[in-house]
Each structure stands twice: as C-alpha cells, then as structure tokens.
Amino acid sequence: MPDQIGRAFSQQMGRRDLLRYTGMGVGVSAALAACKKASDTASQQPGASHAPLEQEPGNLQVFDWSGYGNGDYYPGKERLFLWQQYADQTGDTPKFILFENDDAGFTKVASGTHYDIVHPCAYRFRDYVDLGAVQPWDTSLIPNFSDLNPELEKFGQLDGKQYFIVEDWGFIAPLYRADKVTPQEDSWSLLFDTRYSGKISWIDTLEMLVIAGFYKGVSDPWQMTDDELGQMKDFLISTKGLVKFFWNQSYELFQAFKRDDVWIGYAWPDSYAYAKGAGLDVEYMNPKEGRITWSCGLGLFSDSENYYHGHAYVDSWSSAKAAGFLVGSYYYGHANTGGIDLTGIDPDIVKALSLDDLSILSPPNSNPESYIPERQKYADAWDEVKAS
Amino acid sequence: MVAVEPGSRRVTAGLLATPLLWLTLFFLIPVGFIAAYSIGAIHVLPTDPKVISFEDWHHFLIGDSIYLGLFWKSVRVSLVVSISVVLLAYPVGYFLALCVKKRKYVLLLVIIAPFLTSYLLRVLAWKVILGNRGVINSLLFDLHIRSPGDPVSWLIYSQFAVMLVLVYVWVPFVALPIFVGLDSLDRSLLEAAGDLGANRWRTFLRVTLPLSLPGAVAGFIFVFVPTIGEFVTPQLVGGTNGFLFGNAINDRFTKALDWQSGSVMAFFLLAVVALLMALFGRFAQVRNVRT
Q1: pTM confidence score
Q2: CATH number of the domain at A170-292+370-387, out of 3.40.190.10, 3.30.360.10, 3.40.640.10, 1.10.3720.10?
Q3: Per-residue model confidence as pLDDT tens digits over B5-63
Q4: A240 with B255: Cβ contact below 8 A
Q5: Is A383 on the interface with B (CB under 8 A)?
Q6: Does the domain formed by B65-290 have CATH 2.40.50.100?
Q7: C-alpha distances in Å from residue B155, one per residue of A179, A367, B78, B233
Q8: Is the CB of residue A145 less than 8 Å from the CB of residue A298?
Q9: What's the ipTM?
C-alpha cells in the first residue's frame, strides 16, 4: 500500500512538473514528455524497478574527461551546449568528477568507485560491460538518438544491447610544426625521427605500443603476440631518448608546441585546433599507415539511482547543439552527423576531420581504436618503457 | 626514584590515546593493507590474482625487474636534493637567527611566503622560467649568448629540472628547523669560545655547527622522506628523464591496474625510508650527546 500511495503521489508531481516544463520550449517539452511517457510505461511493466524522474535523487555525478562540461576549457559554453538542455529539463546541475585518461578512469571504477554517468572510449567498452559496471540504455528515452549515426552507435552495442551511446569521435595522428619540420614521408615514423631528437612528445598511454605496431607493420597491433609486444617495447625503449616528455592532457601538448618545447607530437584534433587558433603553422598528418580513429560514449552505471536523469543527460549530449559545439570548439566529430551545418565551419576543420566524408572512419581509410584483450601485458610493457 | 601516581598515568594514557588511535587508523592499518595486498592476501580489482603469492616480491627484488634500478635513481635524486636544500637553507637560518637583530620574524615570514601559494602553481611557474622560450632562454637570446634557434633545452623536462624545482620548493621549509635550532642557541657558549681564544670560524666549527646539526639533520629528513617518493614534480617538469620511482608506483595503481606489484614497490619504499630514518635519527642523537 505505501508503494501505491507513493506511486500515485509521484504521478501527481509528474503532471505538475510537466506543466512547469511546458514553458521551456518545444524541444525540451518533447524530451520530457518522452521521459515521462517512458517512465509511466516502465512503471506499468512487470518487474520495472526504476522510480520516475521526479523521485530520483538528482545531483547527477558525471565521470568524464576534463573540458566536457565542467568548464575547464570553455567556461560557460560547455554548460550551454552540452548540458543546458538537461538542466532545463530536470532542474538539476550535474557534478563532474574527472579522470586523466581511460586507464585511470577504468581503474577507479574497477576498484569500486561508481557514479551515474561514465564517458570511456570504445576500446574500453567491453571492460566496463564485463565488470558489470554499466547497464544498457533504453534508447526510446533518448529522443535525439534517432539523429545519431547508426554506424557509430554500433560501437556502443555489446551482447546485443546499447551499453554506450557513442557521442564524440576523432583522430589520433602526428601533429607537427610545418615551419620547422620536414617529414620524409607522411608516416608515424615522424614520432621516431632522429633528426628531431628532443622535439618530440608521445602520449603517456599504452597506445604508443599500438602506434609502434602500425609503424612496424604488425598485422594486428591491438592483439600483438608476446614476441611482437616485446619487440615493440624494445623499439620504444630504444627511441625514448628522442622524446622530450609524455603528455597526459592534450592542452599540455598544445602549450608545449606554443612554448616551442616540442615540434612533433602524437595528437588529438583539439591540439591541432588550439595550435591553429594560436597562429602556429601546424599540420595534422594523414600517415600512410592510417590515422587511428577513436570514439567515446556515455554509459550509465548499473547501480545509478538517476536512471531517467541519466537518459536526459545523454539526450542533451546527443543534440545537434552539442554536436556543433564539439566540432567547432574541439575539432572533434560528433555522432549527430546530420545536425551539423558544414557551411558554417572553417574549411580547415572540415578538412582536418574529413567531416564531408565519413568513410574516413572505416578501414582502410583509418584504423578504428579496438579492444585490447591482453591489456595488462600492454600496460606492463608500457610502464617498463617509461621506467627504463 | 619518583613514584608515578595512578592519576598521572591515566592522564598520560588519555593524552596518548588520540594520536595512537589516529596513527593506528590512518597509518598502521593502511600499511598493513598494503603489505597484505603485496602478497595477494587482499584483492579488490577483478584482475587481481586470487592466491597468496610472493612472486611479485621475488620479481622485484631478485628478478629482472627494472624498478629496482629506478628506485636507486630516486634515492640518488633525493640525496642530491636533500643535501642541496640543507646547504642552501643553513645560511638562511644562520643569517636570520644570529645576524639579524630586528624584524627577524618579518624576514622569516617573507622567506616562507611562497608557502602561501599553491604547490602546483609554484611548480608550474618554473615551466615559464625554464622553457625553450622561457625567462632564462629569452635572456640568453637577448644577450646573444644563444640564438633563438638553439635554446638551452635541458633546462626543462629533465632530471635537472626536477632537482631544481624540488630544491626551490623545500629550502624555506628546511630553513625553519635550522633557524629554530640556532635561535635557541645559548649565546654564552659563543662568548665563552671567544674568551678562550677561538676565532669566529673556529667557534662556528666547534660550537655553532655541532649544536645546530640536529636541526640540519631533521631538515634533511624532512626533505629526503617525501622527495624519494615524489611523483608530481617529475610528472610536470621531469620529462622522460625525470621519471622516478614514485611515478612508477603511481602508474601501477592508477593506470596499469596492478595494485599487487604497486603494493610491493610502495611497501619496499616505506621499509627503506623507515630504515634510513632510523639511521639518520641515531646519527642526529649521537651528535646531540657529544655536544
């Protein structure tokens, strides 16, 4: 009986909320209506266990990268474009907890720290699912989901369920100062070029082993044999002396470019964007071995008490408004590929991201970032490279 | 012999209870956890082996692990930093305690003023100073000592940068115990040395230095213990050459998902530091008795 009273009360509150939200715009109302409808539907389904949005605690905790809503890179704009829709819809202000990279993020989650939303990249999706840390999304609660590129969303489907909503994507490629560096060829070899000793920066993740694998022609750098892994480790140890520093934040790489500390780097598109914005003469290479394409997505923690808040948040991130912001500010791609008006975007960005030709996301045009089954071995090898 | 009153014992026990409880909860038990984790007696991560094993200890101590070499590199860096800090901080403490007559505490405040700003900010400021386009290199360019195309590149992202920044950070901290030791020096001892014919240098060597040595050793320990496990400064200004043992431990825990080998390294570091502290402490005490 108390449950029934509580449910009746919550439905009353839901209707009042609906009236309040109606004034916030057609799009927002539609999204809320979708959530409300689904909430009611869910509560009517046998075994449905999610309290309606109004009964959820809120204070959504988002475990994310720096600059993806917390205001580190674009104070004000990040909120406006990435989660203002969510705030209008729910009245909630999310709290951001940041991780340095995918490895650090997963380690924290694996050690038992859970939040509501997590934002890993595709090659880590399987780890989260196997850990039981995330639950599948109900895409019917995400009105903007239909606008997302279905090919990209396939990366978020595991075991037949949509565990992650893929949002952002981009490249990994060599970035270099065109006024100071003359590559012998368009190749990852630039990261190991002895002519530029002390002017090179690598990323501080085990993906450097994968890069070495592509450069050395390993058949599958994501699943190297122990012998291949050992060879790549030795290769990186032997060339580490060329490297000035390993970067952890892409902004750190940009600053090093700006200070003239390095001229060549393993880079994401945002470093290219910042460097171009600062007036540096930089090129974002398309190496003959292929760029690596990454995609990242939002997952909902399995024990989150903010089921509908979570869906509202991911819907906000899936909007064309968020897509335009990511493309224009970070030079990242967005899964809402149909929502971006390319005519309003700097042609350099369109060229750098190949926004007018999404076949770039598939082999052989690029190498999608993949799951690494023997990740622990890769991690051990990379740590040895650094410690050697 | 003085009998100890039961009430006095209770007061002593009461006073000791809080710090002992604090130490037990936040030091002894966590250290116990680390020790247990290092042999697989505790497991938290899904990748942890579920058996008790000394394999990681064996690999670290007598296997082909490269981390032991990294540890000794950290010891060397920490020793250089600690000795440099004491050598630089001693004159500061001496000047403040024995030479300054007025406003010595104002000057002391000025010296420790950097502590009022963020540690991270102080370290990052060095990037501006040491970078290829930084303050030092720009000065060299202006003086035509180096050309803009050929800056002194080892100033930043190097072991030198790590040591320089750590010395800068710790000098004010070590100047304090040295100042306190010298400030409380019985000045009549200095007068007595002068009356007995010792010149200022001899007085310093035979009276001032021995009496201030416990403060200097304390300062040395204050620097050596934290810097041997330091990982923030190396990460910010160390580059590939400045990578230290603390960074390796941090990576094992936060990135490599291997808490067991990380625990081995952390516990080993703790044990060595405890041993060295015991040795230094004994040294300091001996010097104290001899004076």
Answers
A1: 0.82
A2: 3.40.190.10
A3: 667 888 888 889 999 999 999 999 999 999 999 999 998 888 888 889 999 999 999 87
A4: no
A5: yes
A6: no
A7: 24, 38, 19, 14
A8: no
A9: 0.84
